[in-house]
Specification:
The complex is a heterotrimer of chains A (340), B (321) and C (308). Chain B is of the alpha/beta class. Chain B is 31% helix and 24% strand. Chain C is built from 11 helices and 2 strands; from the N terminus they run ββααααααααααα. With 308 residues, chain C is mostly helical. The chains are: A alpha/beta (340), B alpha/beta (321), C mainly alpha (308). At the A-B interface, helix 5, helix 6, helix 7 and helix 9 of A face helix 6, helix 7, helix 8, helix 9 and helix 10 of B.
Chain lengths: 340, 321, 308
């Protein structure tokens, strides 16, 4: 692997919601009213190489969106750090993250919510680069028009308001807005999830073209395994705030190692495999407020043993370029002498 | 065998500033007992409005202007408001994308389920509770007795949707209409629910209309598939026919857009353009401006072409299987 | 369809909607209610008549030199010493009532609109700040607002007017203090919803400076419903001012507003000279009702739930 451009080092993020005055008062009588802590991310480390598209896959509560927001500088991590080209862009101290996060741009899931409904498209695209002096003032107009054409829209659309566009077109606008900042890294948070299949194909094609033309580095966050396989080089599988498996896409899809990854593949309906084949994962996703001890997946895992309930599995190598966090890959699920 | 649900020529129009808009245009299909019909379409195709139209749940400025909805041979459109209300819930039930459309947030699950039971079937409270518990068991809810005591907000999204399905099942309806019922759920939970729905259709003999945008879901769940575009059913057939050998260029385009069917990294074949607005439909076949097979003929109304039960609304259908 | 580079151009979006078209749509929805159209006509007529009063009416009620004691208590329709008909009669000082009412209406409009705009500005600043920053700032600001909303506005205005003394600026200040909390609460509610939307997060992650997010992104999206509230609040400011003047803490009769005219006429209501307070009262009522009707219809039209 080449030199990583983005390094995520042991990032954890906890959200603590302190109860209001009324809740604290009520809590005196009911025993509630205590602060609630959500463990959104626990000890996640990742490296992304220049020009690489890394897929982040998981279900709700797995922390994939939080990870994207930490990288984009919206949340500061509780511990750990994120560095871009060797410079720290996000750490515990807020405030001095401002200037550097222009180099990470985000594309949100819902294009109906991510564009300011009362701002013309041209202004939406221009305001970031203009404010940060990324595009010289006299070139803003030409650049914005060129950008709109680059994402497959007409330059004249700069004068329109978002509500005049369809979902697919809006997502193109959101992509153009991110590109206007000339970012080093793009974070796409479920960027095609709310689009219709035919529109999704158009936007995915656009993304692949742009990636090819501009050499984009991107984090592609999605719950859709087939989309991720199509556009990503490597894929990270997350579960309840932790990274459970990381592998090149072809290897992961050919041979998933973590029981959760396997179960996820099995429960996804696919076109043309015949009907009635759902090998569903049993049980529910646990709450990130009270994650299970040991391996977070153990209550749903068919292979779980006593060690899984006691010890959090480490990420261990499972091949030259892949890692997995499962005791099956690290000496078995039974209690070991030193481990207990 | 008579169909549990037979929809004939259903047409629903909305009055808008831009004039009349036909959201559901001459839609016909039948579902046999124990079978699942997948109604697929993209946003704005009219699939959800079809579901609401079947149940007579269209409010002004919309109106069902034509067609018949036969449930076990009874035309719902001929019934009085009162009789229709009785049919809903007992003979025909609906499951929404958001289970909170069905569930009352301030009542315990058990209380609202027993109330729902006793609306249509007079029985004692404890019998009704027993009945509710069984319904929860059918949809695979672990420790149903405890869930009955819970409020909806204490349940996870997947559990709530199961409870909503259980409520739809209470009166063993002949027809269940589910509108994007698993769209908001995580894949692993969706997988669990789809497996149970399949089992449910097989065991209870209910006819299910599964409305969704997700071709993968219908392909693995449904027996029959209807594909909707711009308010019309453009293709109808068994799942094998429609997925294995689509005859409408739109269906073909949709299937081609799915990344899983192509080698990773390759550009996906895409349908150009976007779904037309219902108020500004093109002349003749609504798909014609985006269609690779379109000719001048397509500016006229497309004919219904039926072969081996696979019906397609197209001037130039594909060969299929 | 065309190719630019290797990207497929998506065919046209919906046609560009110009400001003129949006206005036309707004008007076509607005005029569905004849009552509201009528109310709008009434307001425009009252605005024109009151601000054009110096050119429209025969007498300047502020100019004591134009008043003649001989003309006191003329019945509506009688001709006075100035050789013109006093359509609505005259008062105890010989003021032509129509002139006094239109000048008074001008003062009332001036006070109502200035108070409304100032209260809106103050309320928006507080509401936006609280909603955007959250935490302790939000808790502090909104508790003050809540506390104030729990007191009747008239009581607050009375105390303020009594402390500040008589005069137009004093009254405006009293009304702003009495009414800003309402705007702050409404803004806070709307902004708390908007603040959670992705476009705000997108602006934060760009990143854009806070002031820009507040005024270019958050404010334009919470403003439309507030303008409706402001319209209705102008009406309530006008009637609040009238109440204060009626109670004697508002404007003196030398600077007539509708309230002080009613108050003055009230002294003679049992002396068979009821027109002195009835006519200003009728004008006040028509003004307030008309503004409320227009506000209601605008609310209905801009509510997305009613859009077709």
């Amino acid at each position: 692997m080449t030199v990583p451009i983005l390094m995520i080092d042991a990032v954890s993020k906890r959200f603590t919601r302190r109860p209001g005055l009324a809740e604290r008062l009520a809590g005196k009588f009911t025993g509630g009213g205590k602060p609630v802590t959500v463990h959104a991310l626990t000890d996640v480390s990742l490296e992304v190489a220049k020009g690489e598209v890394l897929g982040i896959v998981g279900e709700s509560g797995c922390g994939k969106s939080t990870l994207g927001r930490v990288i984009a500088g919206i949340h500061a991590p509780t511990s750990g750090s994120v560095t871009l080209n060797g410079q720290q862009i996000a750490d515990q101290r807020r405030g001095n993250i401002h200037k550097l996060t222009t180099q990470v741009q985000m594309i949100h899931q819902d294009p109906f919510a991510s564009l300011n409904p009362r701002m013309k498209v041209g202004e939406t695209l221009a305001e970031g680069p203009r404010y940060h002096g990324i595009i010289p003032a006299d070139q803003v107009r030409t650049r914005i028009r060129a950008l709109l054409e680059q994402v497959g829209l007409e330059a004249a659309y700069a004068d329109r308001l978002p509500h005049q566009f369809s979902g697919g077109q809006r997502q193109r606008i959101a992509i153009a807005r991110a590109l206007a900042m000339q970012p080093e890294v793009l974070v796409l948070d479920e960027a095609v999830a709310s689009l219709d299949v035919s529109i999704q194909a158009q936007v995915l094609n656009l993304f692949m073209d742009l990636r090819h033309d501009l050499g984009l580095t991107a984090l592609f966050i999605s719950h859709d395994l087939s989309v991720v396989r199509h556009v990503c080089d490597r894929v990270a599988i997350m579960y309840l705030g932790r990274l459970v498996e990381l592998a090149p896409a072809d290897q992961l899809y050919a041979d998933p190692r973590h029981p959760y990854t396997r179960a996820l593949f099995a429960s996804i309906p696919t076109v043309g495999t015949g009907r009635g084949r759902f090998e569903a994962i049993k049980g529910e996703i646990p709450s990130p407020i009270a994650p299970p001890p040991g391996c977070a997946f153990h209550p749903r895992c068919p292979f779980a043993g006593p060690r899984c309930r006691a010890e959090v599995p480490r990420l261990t190598t499972a091949g030259p370029v892949r890692t997995v966090a499962c005791h099956l890959n690290d000496g078995g699920v039974d209690m070991q002498k030193g481990a207990a | 065998m008579t169909a549990a649900l037979d929809v004939k020529g259903l047409t629903t129009r909305f009055e808008t500033r831009a004039g009349h808009v036909t959201a559901v245009n001459d839609v016909s299909f039948a579902v046999q007992p124990g079978r699942i019909m997948g109604l697929v379409g993209e946003s704005g195709s009219g699939k959800s409005v079809t579901g609401f139209s079947i149940l007579g749940l269209i409010d002004a400025p919309g109106e069902v202007t034509a067609g018949a909805v036969l449930v076990d041979g009874v035309d719902l459109r001929q019934l009085s408001t009162e009789d229709l209300r009785k049919m809903r819930g007992r003979k025909v039930a609906m499951v929404f994308q958001d289970p909170m459309m069905t569930l009352n947030p301030v009542l315990r699950v058990g209380d609202q389920m027993t109330m729902a039971v006793r609306v249509h079937q007079p029985m004692s409270k404890s019998d009704a509770l027993q009945h509710a518990r069984k319904a929860l068991e059918v949809v695979g809810i672990p420790s149903p007795a405890e869930r009955l005591k819970a409020y909806p907000h204490q349940l996870s999204g997947g559990m709530r949707q199961r409870v909503a399905i259980a409520m739809a099942l209470l009166h063993s309806p002949s027809v269940i209409i589910a509108d994007e019922a698993t769209t908001a759920l995580d894949v692993s939970i969706q997988g669990q629910i789809l497996a149970e729905v399949r089992e449910l259709a097989d065991e209870t003999g209910a006819a299910i209309v599964w409305i969704t945008h997700d071709l993968a879901v219908v392909s693995s769940l449904a027996d029959d598939i209807c594909v909707m575009y711009a308010g019309r059913i453009v293709e109808r057939g068994t799942a094998e026919q429609v997925i294995g050998g689509p005859r409408h260029p739109y269906t073909q385009g949709l299937l081609d857009s799915i990344p899983a069917r192509h080698e990773p990294g390759r550009k996906l074949p895409q349908i150009p353009g976007s779904t037309p607005q219902l108020s500004r439909l093109p002349e003749g076949c609504p798909f014609q401006p985006r269609c690779p097979r379109a000719t001048d003929l397509c500016r006229t109304e497309p004919p219904l072409d039926v072969r081996d039960g696979q019906a397609v609304l197209c001037h130039h259908p594909l060969e299929g299987v | 369809m065309a190719h630019i580079g290797n990207v497929l151009v998506v065919p046209s979006a919906a046609p560009a909607e110009t400001r003129v078209m949006r206005l036309r749509n707004f008007w076509s929805d607005y005029r569905r209610s004849w009552v509201a159209v009528g109310a709008l006509v009434v307001i425009v007529a009252l605005l024109v008549a009151s601000f054009g009063a110096p050119w429209l009416v025969p007498q300047d009620p502020y100019d004591l030199g134009q008043l003649d004691w001989a003309d006191a208590f003329l019945q509506p329709g009688q001709t006075g010493s100035g050789n013109y008909v006093h359509l609505l009669g005259t008062d105890n000082a010989g003021r032509d009532m129509l002139s006094a009412i239109l000048y008074g209406l001008r003062t009332s409009f001036l006070i109502g609109i200035s108070a409304g705009v100032l209260a809106l500005t103050l309320g928006i600043s507080i509401g936006l700040t609280a909603a955007y920053f959250g935490g302790r700032i939000e808790a502090l600001l909104m508790r003050i607002v809540d506390l104030q909303l729990s007191m009747p506005a008239i009581l607050l205005a009375l105390v303020m007017a009594a402390v500040l003394g008589q005069g137009v600026p004093q009254i405006i200040l009293a009304l702003v203090v009495a009414q800003y909390a309402y705007f702050a609460r409404t803004t806070h509610g709307a902004a708390s919803v908007e603040r959670r939307k992705d476009y705000i997060e997108a602006a934060r992650s760009t990143p854009l400076p806070t002031w820009r997010i507040l005024f270019k992104h958050l404010l334009p999206n919470v403003l439309p419903p507030l303008i409706v509230v402001a319209t209705v609040q102008v009406a309530s400011a006008i009637s609040l001012e009238a109440t204060l003047s009626f109670l004697g803490v508002g404007l003196p009769l030398t600077e007539p507003s509708l309230g002080s005219l009613i108050s003055n006429g009230f002294k003679y209501i049992h002396a068979g000279r009821s027109w002195l307070s009835i006519y200003p009262g009728v004008f006040l009522m028509i003004t307030v009702v008309a503004i409320n009707l227009v506000g209601d219809q605008v609310r209905t039209v801009i509510d997305p739930r009613n859009s077709r």
